[in-house]
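quick one, 263 residues, struct below
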Amino acid sequence: MRRTLGFIGGGKMATAMIKGLLHQGYPKGKILVADPDPSRRQELAALGIKVFTENSAAVAEAEAVILAVKPQKVEEALRGVEFPPGLPLLSIVAGYSTARLERLLPGLRVLRAMPNVAALVREGITALTPGKAARDEDLAWGKEILQAFGGVVLVDEEMMNAVTAVSGSGPGFVFSFLAALTDAGVLVGLPRSLAGELALRTLAGSAKMAAELGEHPVVLRDMVTSPGGTTIAGLLELERNGFAGAVMQAVYAAKERAEELGE
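---
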């Protein structure tokens, strides 16, 4: 039996989750969302689900809660909300530990997840970890909810900030590379529309190739790197400008920021 879900927060990630659930046939009447922004409520109401201004209203009818607010807004969002004892709560708040939520909400069974923006097209990857009070049935429920918009991996909580940096922030890094590759095509004389199509299809095809062949990325790179050819010349420039190091530094900085947000 599918539970009535109360979303605290109706931002982009919550909306992606809701759209994924609806695509899988989740009953519209069992999805409740509270958000203070009128424009967000209007967009969510257009999906046919119930929307509220007050968080307490969404939780009052819920059999499970999904917390989807900014880390800085957690305490404010939870203030004055009465949760039935033993209610399962799935948090997608970046950097916010299950222990910290359990202290704020004693008696609740907390799960923590980090989805990514590809949930919008049901190609997301989400890491999931249980709090101390969570039961096996809660973990199974969380996994079922998250599988509506992509894959799910179970991880130890100590890995969650690193997960946030790689898969949570990762799409931003990938989109930056896509934009740069498109601009590079324009630089060497291609019309922007053609450069964009070539860059996008190249990126999508390369990702699919890596997923389906299962080879190490270096092995796949070697497939297109001929001795004295164009690819090795380009790779030299990437490394001369610290490409690999820049990517690693970006992920490290994102992890550090996730830790700061959870403090």
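Residues 192-213 form the longest helix (22 residues).
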